[in-house]
Amino acid sequence: MVRIAIAQVDCQLGDVEANLETARSQVLSARDRGAELVVFPELSLHGYALATLDEDRSLRADDPRLTVLGDHGPDVLVGFHEDGAIRRYNSAAYVSEGEVLHVQRKLYLPNYLVWEEKKHSSAGQDLRAFDARVGRVATLICNDAWQPVVPWLAAQDGAEIMLIIADSASGYGPESLDNIHYWTELLRFHAMMNQSWVVFCNRVGTERGARFWGGSRVIDPLGQVVAEAQLWEPELLVCDIDVDKARHRRHEVPLVAEARLDFVRREVTRLIADGGDA
């Protein structure tokens, strides 16, 4: 069994030091409850409305203020605005024992309706699963999970636990888009079809007219919600998961194993040649 804590927190826009202190406090509380990993929301060290800030407050992934979060016992996955030298990224750093084990940059930046992420971030260019103390893990950042191919690729790279972090707000888009309903169905689909654990961490609080709804949860490889945080309010949700359940399910019903990757490669290559988005 692995014990995971989901820190469903609010953050202060642009106040990195205050948000780091919130993160530290949550990590210590999670440690006291026996957690081996603490997961924070998307951009939890910076806030979402980056375009409204009067200066660049991004952090390098190896900034000691960030890496020290991994010195308290549990591993930590934290969302932040990354200083990538020439470019800035919406990123998540997985920190273990004071070192960055992995950095995932958001791949699909929404740039429509009220979302304008491409104004202040560049898109990531790769996705990698990686081995951590809790098992083989992949990180997806919000809109990445709305592209079905991304979780599928993570599963093909061996991910048994998908850590999906978000800044999802209710009523922050067209009336036909019920974010809570979409996420509920989407997360169960990813868990079942990719036969993996899904750990979803969403923010709470209000920022520049957006109200973030929380509802963080853990879903097993059969699509069952095994733990769920409240809506709208901060919460530290702690849950034990059996990683072997993903391995057993993949052996029992080998959906992930029958991907036929060469067939996929040929068809994607054909679509690109026909004028598709490369």
Automatic annotation (TrEMBL):
InterPro entries: Aliph_Amidase/BUP (IPR050345), C-N_Hydrolase (IPR003010), C-N_Hydrolase_sf (IPR036526)
Pfam family, one: CN_hydrolase
Superkingdom: Bacteria
Keyword list, A-Z: Hydrolase
SUPFAM superfamilies per the UniProt record, alphabetical: Carbon-nitrogen hydrolase (SSF56317)
Molecular function via GO: hydrolase activity
Signal peptide start-end: none
The CN hydrolase domain, residue ranges: 2-243
Protein name listed in UniProt: Carbon-nitrogen hydrolase
Lineage: Bacteria, Bacillati, Actinomycetota, Actinomycetes, Micrococcales
